[in-house]
Design goal:
single chain; elongated; mainly alpha
Length: about 80
């Protein structure tokens, strides 16, 4: 897994969240906040699939079964 790449993306997401916190505290419009929250959701989803993709690259059969079960649990939530 490319740890540094993932950490950098997490830091960007963290920065986006801090930005939304600032928007809330300065009473920005709900429309602006919703747009930023949607961007955060997209960034998290993208990172989720990147992590799964990287894991699939080197997974053996047992690990593939574990990943499949994890994905099933996520899809039910």
């Amino acid at each position: 897994m490319q740890v540094v790449k993932i950490q950098n993306r997490l830091k960007r997401i963290e920065g986006q969240i801090r930005g939304v916190e600032n928007m809330v505290s300065t009473l920005r419009s709900a429309d602006e906040i919703v747009v930023q929250l949607s961007a955060i959701r997209s960034a998290v989803n993208s990172l989720l699939f990147e992590v799964i993709d990287q894991e699939l690259e080197f997974a053996d059969k047992d690990r593939l079964v574990e990943l499949k079960n994890t994905i099933r649990r996520l899809s039910k939530g």
